[in-house]
Fold this protein.
Amino acid sequence: MFIGDAIGLDFLNSVAAPVDTRVEWIGSGAGLIDWLRQSGLVQESTLQKIARSAGPGELDAVAAQARALREWFREFVQAHMGTTLTRASVRELAPLNRLLARDELFGQIVADGNDASGPELRFVDDRRWRSPESLLMPIARAMAELVTSTDFTHVKACEGNTCTLLFKDTTRGRKRRWCSMAVCGNRAKQAAHRERSAHAK
Ligand SMILES: [Zn+2]
C-alpha cells in the first residue's frame, strides 16, 4: 500500500480496503513495527531493540496512539487536499508540533562505505529511542515533511468507488486518478465497458 508517493500519505493508507474488505495494517504493536519496517522509516536493528525492551501491551498502546494520530491527520489532509496550504494551517497543526517538540534527534558523522563514488564521510540523523513511543517520531516528521514540501493541490484521493487511498500526483499534466491501475483503474475500465455494452443492447 505504498502508493502515495509521499510517506506521510502512505501512513494514511495504512488502513485501506483495496479488495473490498478493510485492512488495518497497524491494528497492533507488531503491525506498527511491520509498517515501520516496510516504510523504511526505522532501521531493523532499532525496531528489534524496541520490540525486545517494550513491556507487555506497550507496543499495542503505541499502535493505538499511531492510529489516533493517523485519523487526526487524515481529517487535516482531507480538508485541505486540492488546495494550497496557507499560513493559517499552522494553528490546525499545533498537535503535530507538540508531538514534534518531544523528538530527541541528534546528528552523527559516519564513515560511508556503501557508495564508492560518494563522499567518505556523511552527516546523518540519529535519535535517542528512549521509549516505544518514540516510534511515533519518524511518522510525525513524515507528516511535517508532507505539509511543508508538498503542494497540496497535487494531493488526491483515488477515484475508485470504495477506495480510500490517497496519493501525491507527480505525473506530468497531473492526470493520475487511481491508487493503482491494477486495482481501481481496471475496475473502472471494466465498469465503463459493462455500461457501454448494456447501452449497446
Ligand atoms: Zn483505489
Notes: The CA atoms of residues 78 and 157 lie 9 Å apart. The pocket of zinc ion is lined by residues 158, 160, 163, 165, 178-179, 183-184 (CB under 6 Å). The longest strand covers residues 105-111.
